Amino acid sequence: MSVPLAEKTGQHQLPIEFADEKESIKITGFWMFLVTDVLIFASLFSTYAVMRTSVAMGPTPDQLFHMGPVMLETILLLTSSFTIGLGVYFMRKGQVRALMGWMIVTILLGAGFVGTEIHDFVTFAQQGATWHTSAFLSAFDILVGTHGAHVTFGIFWAITLLFQLRKRGITPQTARKVYTYSLYWHFLDIVWIFIYTFVYLNGKIV
Amino acid sequence: MSEATKPITAEEAYNNENDKVLRFLKPRFHEEAFPTIQILGYIGSLILTFGAYFLVMNHVLPPVALLSVILVLAVFQAALQLGVFMHIREGRGLAWQLIPLYFVFFVALGMVGMSIWIMLFKSGVS
């Protein structure tokens, strides 16, 4: 016996980003991208795990890191993860203005994160701690820098989405784009939590 | 339209006696009237972050135990982000993202874990 499904006839609504089959499969595809991105960060974390005691003549992690800016960056990124989560919540409710508002808040928080991180890196460089100094600093800069580059890319991605949302509103296509962007942003938050724990806090355990 | 061809939701379809074994294929999404889960998730992530911070700054444990504890806290937080914000278990049918994710966590744990493990043999390496 074949019974028509209410989902197929549109009488029972799926969330809009999953409603269209072709858009829905792209969300699964984006998960595959995130999986490969996990591998990039895993190899950088491995490098850091091996190199972090090789400080040569340069500063040790404990001497170099100041927890003030790091906590600021952590709070900014955690909060931005929360705000884009709210954005997706309002997107599923079909409220385009609330979605765009929370996305703008997310972009500002992300910009604050990148700004703090750049300021931190410049401060390190002024102290003579660049990636030429030691194996530890090479591994540190490439790991934290790759994450920062991801966040920077995410900010520009979100800005392009804002233009699309303003022009087209919430359609299955723009909704899928916002949803994959939110997956990307939360993923960066997870990576940051491990940088925060394994690089910064671990550096303070003497 | 006869009774037999009236549209039913997937929820009802997979509750049919014949299809109960296929329930893992049914669409799965959460709807909330208020973003309670998101707010609780945010508070939880802040607690985990500051918990790890105070544990480390007050040196409450010996170094290796301390690192283990804060890494466990980080894993909890990753699970929280995946579960609350990334809707990891949601999908139109089976959540296909779970299978490659389990695999890549296995590979990543192997890579990082083995690297940490091999560096414990300091005398042998240098």
Tally the beta strands of chain A.
Answer: 0
**What is the helix/strand order of chain B?**
HHHHH
Shape of chain B: elongated
The number of helices of chain A is 8
Q: How does this model look, in words?
A:
- The complex is a heterodimer of chains A (206) and B (126).
- With 206 residues, chain A is mainly α.
- Chain A has one domain (21-204): Cytochrome c oxidase, subunit III, four-helix bundle (Four Helix Bundle (Hemerythrin (Met), subunit A)).
- In chain A, 81% of the residues lie in helices and 0% in strands.
- The mean pLDDT of chain A is 92.
- In chain A, helix 5 (67-92) runs antiparallel to helix 6 (96-126) and helix 5 packs antiparallel against helix 8.
- With 126 residues, chain B is mainly alpha-helical.
- Chain B folds into two domains: 33-88; 92-126.
- Chain B contains five helices and no strands.
- Chain B has helices spanning 10-13, 36-57, 63-85, 98-119, 122-125.
- Classes of the chains: A mainly alpha (206), B mainly alpha (126).
In short:
The complex is a heterodimer of chains A (206) and B (126). Chain A is an all-alpha fold.
Key features of this structure:
heterodimer; A: 206 residues; mainly alpha; Four Helix Bundle (Hemerythrin (Met), subunit A); 8 helices; elongated; B: 126 residues; 2 domains
Secondary-structure topology with pairs:
The complex is a heterodimer of chains A (206) and B (126).
Chain A lengths: L5 H4 L6 H4 L1 H31 L9 H4 L2 H26 L3 H31 L8 H34 L3 H33 L2
Chain B lengths: L9 H4 L22 H22 L5 H23 L12 H22 L2 H4 L1
Helix pairs in contact in B: 2-3
